[in-house]
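All the exercises in this workshop are built on plain-text protein records. A record pairs a protein's sequence with a compact description of its fold. The structure tokens are whole numbers drawn from a learned vocabulary of backbone shapes. Once this layout is familiar, the rest of the handout is easier to follow. An example says more than a description, so a record of this kind follows.
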Amino acid sequence: MAPRLCSISAAARRLLGGPRPGAGDIAAAARFYSKDNEGSWFRSLFVHKVDPRKDAHSTLLSKKETSNLYKIQFHNVKPECLDAYNSLTEAVLPKLHLDEDYPCSLVGNWNTWYGEQDQAVHLWRFSGGYPALMDCMNKLKSNKEYLEFRKERSQMLLSRRNQMLLEFSFWNEPQPRAGPNIYELRTYKLKPGTMIEWGNNWARAIKYRQENQEAVGGFFSQIGELYVVHHLWAYKDLQSREETRNAAWRKRGWDENVYYTVPLVRHMESRIMIPLKISPLQ
């Protein structure tokens, strides 16, 4: 049987022909405290408590000095259309990123390498929070090129979903970086009511994962599926990832963070991703 090809309409060819702007683990949690950590077995008998709060998670956990809002998009692409999807995306999205009239910017764009296959992941930043988001959405409604892009893109997709996110106050703000790198998006679905406890533990633990500048950004969901955390990491390659993660286990305190946070998780998954050409995170 001849392989299926993703056909590209004349509209898509016009878009592509235009100028382009320039551009751990749950298993590890089974480890107990280090042998030289006296009294650890005794402390494990007690549940780690957090004082009850009356404020919203967004107030307690997010950065106060910025009003950035993030949107993460997951697009499941028809396998025969992935190359055409990437080309179409690379032709159109940078125009929004560079247009000062739109209060949005690309943070990163990837294809999943290991994890869910034939998937594209896009991370956007809206400087100015929800008003910036609504301003951008309203302007896109009258952007004929973008509407044409969305119509063409819809023919290439099997499904799509998104979430609105805030960034944790104790994580780095994602900044463009040179490559080549691979990126790991680790997603944790927490038990309801545990977000503050998660934040308290990771605020202390993030220092153990900064030496190789692998920490890119940490986010928690505000709209979409709730009690979801995304941690974004950068590594030179898979071997570098393994060595960096193993090194964290040799630091006193990292095992304690894992011990206390694993019980908060009801599901977790990892994606290894490769940046698209247009991604500021290379």
About this structure: Residues 82-98 form the longest helix (17 residues). The beta strands are 68-77, 104-114, 119-127, 157-167, 182-190, 215-223, 228-235, 265-275.
